[in-house]
Every structure is written in C-alpha cells, then in structure tokens.
Amino acid sequence: MGFFGFKNFDQLTETELTIYRFVANDIEKTAYMRVRDIAKEAHVSNTSVMRFVHKLGFNSFTEFKVSLHSAKLDQQKEQSDQSLSLHFIMKENFPQDIYEKLMVVADKIINADMVIYVGMGSSAALAEYASRQTAAIGINSFCIKDPFYPLSAQLQNTTNNVLITFSVSGRTPEIIGLLNDFVNNIDNTLVSITGNLESSLAKMCHYNLSYKTNEERIHHFYDMTTQVPATYLIENLLLRVRHLLQ
C-alpha cells in the first residue's frame, strides 16, 4: 500500500510515477514544499504535479499537503514503534549450543532430589515463578530470595540437589557469597541463568544457560533490564523436563 493508501499504480503515467517516487522517498521534506518546488526537484511540470494530486483523489494541493503531514507523522510513529519493539528472543541472543545445554540441565532436574531456585530483586520473582512451575509438574522445589538464608545448613545432610540461580549481571556479591559454600560440594549441581557468561556466577557454576542483553538502570540503582530472555530459558527448560517425564 502507498503512503496515501493509494493502490492503483497502474493508473499512473510514467511522469506521475516519477512524482510519486520522489515524494515517497522523502515525505518529511516534500511535506513542506510548494508545487513548483516538487516540479523542479522531480524534473516535471507544475501541471503534471497538479494532475498527479488530483489523480490521487485530492481536491487541492493544500489537501494533498495535509495528507503528506499525516503520512509523515505515521512514518515517525512507525519508526518509533520499531525502535521500542522487542528483539530479545532471537537466535543471535543465545549461544549456539543453548538447546543442548537445556537438555542436559533438564535431565539433571528430573534426576534430582531437590531443585532450588535462587534470585534477588526482579530475578527473585522469576526464581519464585520457576519454583512454582517446577513443583506443579511434581518435582521437589523451593525458592530462595533471601541471600542470607542458611541454605548450606539446610542442605547439609542432603544429596543430589540442583541449584539454579538467576542473575542478569552475575556479579551480585550476596548471591556469589550464598553459592560459594556449594562450589566444591559434589552433592550439588550449580546452574546459572545469566546475561554475563564472563561473570563470577557463570564461572563458579557447572552449567551456564546464558543470553545476551543490555543492562539498563534508572536513578543509578533501579535495575530495569529485561527478564524476557531468562523467562524464555526457564520456560524452555521446564518444557523439556515435562517431555522427559512423559
């Protein structure tokens, strides 16, 4: 569809198509041009411009200009919408072997005695959601949102646990401190879901489900970074767990 909603291009002459292409190529500029300016720039006559305007269904050049301004605003809005659109779930945002890693972790989960999800801030909400969904499919699970929770003491006499930690940066000191007790414990498998594969969290975990995203903060410390990639990973992981349990 053309920028005026015009569709019948076969009704336009070669000269009129030349004018149409000239206008469509830079609506923002031509919205402020006069008849003779368009004619000069498009290398056609003033009469050809007015014939083109009338053929498009406008009664006057002024009415045509109003439509141009409207088309310009629509174009700007479309460009703005595209800049704000979601581009998180794309192949380029994840490692090439992400689905193989998801399958390995899914297998660890179905063979675990307990699955513990860990997170702070917005990651805590995601950890809580993941724990609830895991419990719903019949797997022992709980969530840790308090980094000072005595998790090490609680798991002291347990074996075969999977700890899945959510952290965009992978650098949160409290989270690192919480997991540090389990790094050399063979009874616990550590998994990170993080946007930073080079982080301390990723390096201390046995398996990393990573993704690429830009960290965003407002007022210096409010984290506004999207959790869509992490949500996608946990949904995909639990889908694989359900298939393995069938």
UniProtKB/TrEMBL annotation:
- Per the UniProt entry, what species is this protein from, by scientific name? Tetragenococcus solitarius
UniProt keyword list: DNA-binding, Transcription, Transcription regulation
Q: Which SUPFAM superfamilies match?
A: Homeodomain-like (SSF46689), SIS domain (SSF53697)
One Pfam family it belongs to: SIS
Name of the protein described by the UniProt record:
MurR/RpiR family transcriptional regulator
> Which ranges form a coiled coil?
none
Stretches assigned to the HTH rpiR-type domain: 1-75
Quote the InterPro entries the UniProt record gives: Homeodomain-like_sf (IPR009057), HTH_RpiR (IPR000281), RpiR-like (IPR047640), RpiR-like_SIS (IPR035472), SIS_dom (IPR001347), SIS_dom_sf (IPR046348), WH-like_DNA-bd_sf (IPR036388)
